[in-house]
Write a structure and sequence with these properties.
Blueprint lengths: L14 H7 L4 E7 L7 E6 L5 E2 L1 E4 L6 H13 L9 E7 L7 E7 L5 H4 L8 E7 L1 H4 L5 H16 L3 E4 L2 E2 L2
Parallel strand pairs: 1-6, 5-8
Antiparallel strand pairs: 1-4, 2-3, 2-7, 5-6, 8-9
Length: 169
């Protein structure tokens, strides 16, 4: 065997065919920005009427952490320093396309003065820092059900493990 192909034998796939047979998914990352009271900062998209965590889809060359850092810089002008602090993930399924894994990274606690430096990109037209209870009035069911487990993971330090917004048990 070599690094690029499996040994040729009946019933065995070439490496290229094996790779082509693997399931596909999309990787996304979000930076969970919050204050000392665990109010969450979300941004409003201009391309659809939705409130979202700061984040986005992974570029081909990016790992999940690099995606979160890049998206925070692009979307709100937030420069993140320090090591990654993975909060957890949400495995999201769709009827019309491949599933996505949404990685959540914990940002440092937002100090009040830091909010003045938020600069929205053209992708967003508003931001708010609200409690989970306040946010649920503004969000669709999937995004709303993620908020309480995300906040709880911030508070407790326990890993966040969701499937379609529900905790995996």
């Amino acid at each position: 065997m070599t690094d690029t192909t499996l040994a040729a034998s009946p019933g065995r796939l070439s490496r290229a065919d094996w790779l082509a047979s693997l399931p596909r998914n999309t990787a996304c990352s979000a930076l969970v920005l919050h204050d000392a009271e665990y109010r969450l900062l979300l941004v409003h998209a201009t391309y659809e009427d939705s409130w979202q965590f700061v984040g986005g889809v992974r570029d081909a060359q990016d790992d999940p952490w690099t995606t979160a850092v890049r998206e925070a810089r692009e979307e709100i002008g937030y420069e993140l320093v320090g090591p990654p602090r993975l909060l957890g993930y949400d495995w999201v399924t769709f009827e019309d396309c491949e599933p996505a894994v949404q990685h959540f990274f914990r940002a440092p606690v937002l100090e009040p003065g830091r909010l003045d430096s938020i600069r929205l990109s053209e992708e967003h037209d508003d931001w708010r820092l609200l409690s989970v209870e306040e946010w649920t009035r503004h969000l669709g069911p999937h995004r709303a059900r993620r908020l309480r487990p995300v906040r709880d993971a911030l508070r407790t330090g326990r890993p966040l493990c969701l499937r379609d917004g529900y905790p995996v048990t």
